[in-house]
Amino acid sequence: MSTPLLEIEDLQARVCDREIIKGFNLTINEGEVHAVMGPNGAGKSTLSNVICGKPGYEVTGGSIRFKGKNLLALSPEERAREGIFLCMQYPVEIPGVPTATFLKHAVNAIRKHHELPELDTMEFVKMLREEGKKLGIDNEMIKRPVNVGFSGGEKKRLETLQMSILKPALSILDEADSGLDIDALKVVADGVNALRDGHRSMLVITHYQRLLNYIVPDFVHIFADGHIVKSGDKNLALELEEKGYAEFVKEK
Amino acid sequence: MAGLLQNKPLLCDNIPWVEALRQKGRRAFEEQGLPTAKTEYWQYTKPRDLNADDFVMQNSEDYEFLTRDEHHHCDCGGNCSCGHHDETEGIDLNNRLLPFDAYYLYFANGMFIPMYPALPAGVEVKPLAEALADGEAKPYLGKLVDIEKHPFAALNTAYLEEGVFLRIQAGVKLNKPLVIWNHTEVDDENVFYNLRHLIILETGAEAEIFEYSDYCGAEKSRYFANSVNEIFLSADAVLRHYKLQDEAYKANHVALTAVRAKAAARYHNFCFQRGANIGRNEVIVNLCEEQAAAEVNAAYKMSGWATLDFTTDIEHLAPATFSDQLVKGVVDGDARGVFQGKIEIHPDCVATEGHQLHRAILLSDTAEVDVKPELKIYADDVKCSHGAATGELDEDQLFYMQSRGIDVDEARRILVEAFLDDVLLKIENEAIRAYVKSRV
User: Is some CB atom of chain B closer than 8 A to the CB atom of A98?
Assistant: First the structure.
């Protein structure tokens, strides 16, 4: 049996002295798509931020291994270069930094890590145009500063574009559908599904079942009060939709 | 103070009005002394290093040596044989050109290097000493600076001799920027020098001037450069005045630029300060007739123990005058940034606008920024605004970039560059802007 891509064991984490993650376990193998569903305040965003190394989150116990390596010892940028990508719920605006410039820095940082030659501007622009086209991102948009003045849909499309050009081994989608109308959701879901090649893995974090109609998971976990209370296949999401969270939280 | 007031031979010491002016400067400096924390407009910048007694002053070459009349008005474009396009012995100027097409005037350790650029007709340049000797400088010198209130300008006046006299005749538009290059190169001694430039734009004249202060030599060298510019803009004249101060980390650089703008004249100033132990740039603009306008912008970026100070005094002396200031700074290490911005709207100067904005980013816990906005408004029907904000780099922006694989130091660099982007856009000349950006 090969090494799992991501192994989270008995993870405990706190923010500002408040215990948020309380004994969380999850294993994701290559090519698998896992959905973690939970009510508001369950600690879903904390989980994704801890995996990505956002400052301000203190891990007090347990371990996270990525491709067998101790992930918690790595800086956020090292985690990204190893192949973890966080598709953010609220992508950050960076005035003064053109989107294309930002993306070129990111692509080359990751290529350098994998000992690939850096892309020159010509190669990069060509690649960006091709990938952008699939997501309805035009040249005008990539000239603008990162996320500045972007609509909710545009921001999510840019996140998806980053995912497709950075080609991460594990994509974490944090509430990828929030703020999206159905058309925008389809564009984003198509972009995500295009990356499902049997090798790339995904962790889809969501409150609602709706997104999972478009990005169909292999496994579904219900996350409440800092840990997983029930795991199952995609049908668990439908069951949850029917019964509501209260039913499952009570089971514990 | 003895270190700064020395008895050195000065050019033109036989001309009574020049000597009288120098004496006045010397007295004014003796009365005021070096600024202390109690001196108005010097609360934050403490020129302690200038209390030394080991400053060395060099004697200037006789102006007759510097003067080459036949070369002043050459517009051959470099094709004649007048000789002034050749390299000056000992200095390879070809290696010293900035990456844009320009006319160059060189000063080395405060002394004019007699190389005259081939300037177009209608543009006069001569060493200040020559303008002292022929009296052309007399109607201008000291007219815009109150030496009783500016101790370093008083000190500068006590040593009047080095600098340029630049006059652009009515309607003449200079086709390339004029670079005034102030290069310092010393070894162990602590050199002290003064520069005084007179810049006169007659009616409707237009020019771009790039003042560049750089340094090479021993890092420990603690020199002191003290310069004063007096700039006279007649009606409808336009001057774009850029400055890049890029000096040794123990350098002391004190500069005062005083401007008088007449009807519909426009003065654009941009100053980028980096390096120096103390770098003080003070800009005084008198908008004395209707429609006169000034844009005074600056950026500073430093670390170590530097203090970089940008101080402005915009005087609206006529109705319907306009001023705008944008100053941005990035401070790291134990460094300190200072911005003191004054706008004064005198009585009856209605329909006037004065705006000011300062923003700074602190990159370390020990960095400091001191800001003193000062608005004095004695007229109704005016539009004025000011704002100041100091913060840190945005953590969320940093994390966003890191989460895409970008190294945290690289992310910081990108964010600093982005922060300074809008103020650098105030440099209208693209080639100069690109050069200044390359030095950020």
Answer: no
Q: What is the pLDDT of residues B282-316, one digit of tens each?
A: 999 999 999 999 999 999 998 888 899 999 999 99
CB atoms B399 and A96 under 8 Å: no
Give chain A's domain count: 1
Task: Pick B405's closest partner by Cβ from A54, A110, A146.
Answer: A110
Within 10 Å of residue B235's Cβ, how many Cβ atoms? 17
Band the pLDDT of A184: cuts 50, 70, 90.
confident
Does residue A1 form part of some domain?
A: no
Kindly report, residue by residue over A16-67, the tens digit of the pLDDT: 889 999 999 999 999 999 999 998 888 899 999 999 999 999 999 999 999 9
CB pairs under 8 A between A and B: 78
Token pair of A119 as six digits: 């892309």
Sign, Cα dihedral of A51, A55, A56, A59: positive
Contact B405 A86 (CB under 8 A): no
Q: What is the largest CA-CA distance in chain A?
A: 57
State how far the Cα of B24 lies from the Cα of B30, in Å rounded to an integer.
Answer: 10
- Which structural domain, as residue segments, surrounds residue A85? 6-251
| Straight-line distance from the first to the last Cα atom of chain B, in angstroms, rounded to the nearest whole number | 35
Contact B407 A91 (CB under 8 A): no
Q: What CATH number is given to the structural domain containing A67?
A: 3.40.50.300
Nearest residue of B to residue A111, measured between CA atoms: B405
- CB neighbour class for A39 (10 Å; exposed up to 12, middle 13-18, buried from 19): middle
Helix (H, G, I), strand (E, B) or coil at B197: strand
Q: Does A11 touch chain B (CB under 8 A)?
A: no
Q: Does residue B395 sit at the A interface (CB-CB below 8 Å)? A: yes
Nearest C-alpha neighbor of B314 from the set B213, B206, B386: B386
